[in-house]
Amino acid sequence: MYRETNWALRPGRAEDVEAIAELRAEVMREDLVRLGRYDEHRVRQRLRDGFSPAHTSVIELDGALAGCVTVRPYEDGEGLYLEHFYLAPETQGRGLGTAVLRGLLDRADADGVPVRLVVLQGSAARRLYEREGFAFESEDPVDVVMVRTPRPRAAGR
């Protein structure tokens, strides 16, 4: 597990969009190719079109870009929508994603709100989400929608 001092979240900035679009293309390529949905331009443009610096945090590891995550209010106002959660391949599988996700979920639990997300069919990321309490809500041939209801806060937390 990463120690807190090694990584940090910083607010997203408009100038982060291209670095994050490249990261998205790299991270999603394998799953999108497997699903027959990879388009080199579209994978970047979808990020650009929906990029919201106000809702995005950049994950830095030892001061360098290691990933990002966007958390915005859900469309119906009931909870949060987690999207654009990407980690650079060299940082995956070492606990950083779990540490970042747990911090975000702790805040959602404190606010008593559910969190929804969409994960690609067959993506290894689904295991992380299931470990952290997300459950299947719906699916189509490409996407799986998952939701996590807020957990009660433990005494003394």
TrEMBL record:
Gene3D superfamilies: 3.40.630.30. The keyword Transferase applies. It comes from the Bacteria. Pfam families: Acetyltransf_1. InterPro entries: Acyl_CoA_acyltransferase, Bact_Acetyltransf, GNAT_dom. The keyword Transferase applies. PROSITE patterns: GNAT. Transmembrane segments: none annotated. Keywords: Acyltransferase, Transferase. One of its GO terms (molecular function) is acyltransferase activity, transferring groups other than amino-acyl groups. Residues 7-151 form the N-acetyltransferase domain. PANTHER family: AMINOALKYLPHOSPHONATE N-ACETYLTRANSFERASE-RELATED-RELATED. This is N-acetyltransferase family protein. It comes from Streptomyces sp. R44. The lineage of its organism: Bacteria, Bacillati, Actinomycetota, Actinomycetes, Kitasatosporales.
